[in-house]
Amino acid sequence: MTDLSSVGVVVLAAGKGTRLNCVDIPKVMLEIGGKPIVSYTVETLRKVGFKKEQICLVVGFCKEKVMDYFKDTVSYAVQTDLRGTANAAFIGMQTLPKNITQVLVLGGDDSAFYRPDTIRDFINRHEQRQAKLSLLVATVEQPIGLGRIFRHENGEIEIIEKEYLTEEQKLIKEISTGTFIFDRKWFEEMYPTMPPMQKLNEYGLPTALAVARKMRATYQIVKLEHPDEWFGINTPEEYAEANKRKQITK
């Protein structure tokens, strides 16, 4: 098992949740199974063995709601200008202790069902490969509205965001979970030169994979063994389903 003392975690928790009509509460604080979505993620990270100084929640919209709930059991970084997931990851990394060399980045709204063993295995594989970037992917039956994994014939891998998909690419069922592990030094040096995503004008984590590929940095994708562990909560229907699943598993 990898020594976790040099591994940190950034949990992205700054989003508003417009499609879920979140007016005065961050999306990650919506309750499923009677507890905030992101609380399950933090619980899992603690079971993995992470201490509070290793877990950074990047907060933004209605940040006080998150901070009042977790108090001093985690650390925080504030994303004042919501400029994308890569920007949030970079801000979060800045608050981690100096001895942290590898950083796991999770979405606070889609990681509530991850198992501790899944996180441990992902970290182990990243360490074994000595990769600059590792990405967790999954095959799902209904990939509508999600970025796809496109495998080139030469073995190169690309994340194609939903805004850019061709009709043919929409048939692909392998998706990016948005869960990454980065070599901290590599990411912090790469980020300032990262181009924004053209149609969104924000800095997205999928671009990091494109940069790694261009730089010929070592990267890998790791298949999620149980695809149902990743569950994006973006619509009222998904929110209802997540709540139902947490009620069953309680």
State the helicity in percent bands.
25-40%
CATH C-level name: Alpha Beta
The secondary structure category is alpha/beta
Number of strands: 11
Q: Approximately what portion of the residues adopt beta-strand conformation?
A: 15-25%
Mean pLDDT: 93
At CATH's second level, what is the architecture?
Alpha-Beta Complex
What does this structure look like?
The protein is of the alpha/beta class and 250 residues long. The chain has one domain (4-249): Spore Coat Polysaccharide Biosynthesis Protein SpsA, Chain A. It has seven helices and eleven strands. It has helices spanning 37-48, 63-70, 85-95, 116-129, 184-190, 205-215, 236-249, and strands spanning 7-13, 31-32, 35-36, 55-59, 75-78, 102-107, 133-139, 148-151, 157-160, 174-183, 219-223. Strands 5-4-1-6-10-7-11 form a seven-stranded mixed beta sheet, sandwiched between helices. Helix 2 (63-70) links the parallel strand 4 (55-59) and strand 5. The chain is globular and about 45 Å long.
Protein traits:
250 residues; alpha/beta; Spore Coat Polysaccharide Biosynthesis Protein SpsA, Chain A; 11 strands; globular
Outline:
By secondary structure, the chain is of the alpha/beta class.
List the helices and strands and how they pair.
Blueprint: E1 7-13, E2 31-32, E3 35-36, H1 37-48, E4 55-59, H2 63-70, E5 75-78, H3 85-95, E6 102-107, H4 116-129, E7 133-139, E8 148-151, E9 157-160, E10 174-183, H5 184-190, H6 205-215, E11 219-223, H7 236-249
Parallel strand pairs: 1-4, 1-6, 4-5, 7-11
Antiparallel strand pairs: 2-3, 6-10, 7-10, 8-9
Helix pairs in contact: 1-4, 3-6
